[in-house]
Design brief:
- The chain has strands spanning 2-7, 10-13, 18-26, 33-39, 46-52, 58-60, 68-73, 78-83, 92-99, 113-114, 118-123.
- It has no helices and eleven strands.
- The radius of gyration is 13 Å and the shape is globular.
- The strands form two sheets. Strands 2, 4, 5, 6, 9, 10 and 11 form a seven-stranded mixed β-sheet that branches. It has a four-stranded antiparallel β-sheet with strand order 1-3-8-7, with no helix packed on it.
């Protein structure tokens, strides 16, 4: 089992920045890649970004590419999402997820473990 705990969410004005963290514990060696997803009220959960744990290859949704940066600290077993130039449409609950395959994909069903989420609210 892998346990994931997100933190760093909050309220920010449009144009501002936030950094989300996701601390992983348990059988972390079984996680070859991790990702961030988000779910806005009344909408389906959508892919944001993903990264391979060893090589650090990344994959972004078009809606966040150039504004968000995903990274990881292998020693601390922590995943990050630096979010810059935030927009009101970025408002959502953000979830981190882990998968046992290093193949980067936006498909939620391929991720084996999920955190509880952290809320990000961007005011206009």
């Amino acid at each position: 089992q892998v346990q994931l705990v997100e933190s760093g969410g909050g309220l920010v004005q449009a144009g501002g920045s936030l950094r989300l963290s996701c601390a992983a514990s348990g059988r972390t060696f079984s996680s070859a890649a991790m990702g961030w997803f988000r779910q806005a009220p009344g909408k389906e959960r959508e892919f944001v970004a993903a990264i391979t744990w060893i090589a650090g290859r990344t994959y972004y949704a078009d809606s966040v590419r150039g504004r968000f940066t995903i990274s990881r600290d292998n020693v601390k077993n922590t995943l990050y999402l630096q979010m810059n130039s935030l927009k009101p449409e970025d408002t959502a609950a953000y979830y981190c997820a882990a998968k046992s395959s290093s193949f980067l994909t936006p498909v939620q069903a391929t991720y084996n473990y999920w955190g509880q989420g952290t809320q990000v609210t961007v005011s206009s």
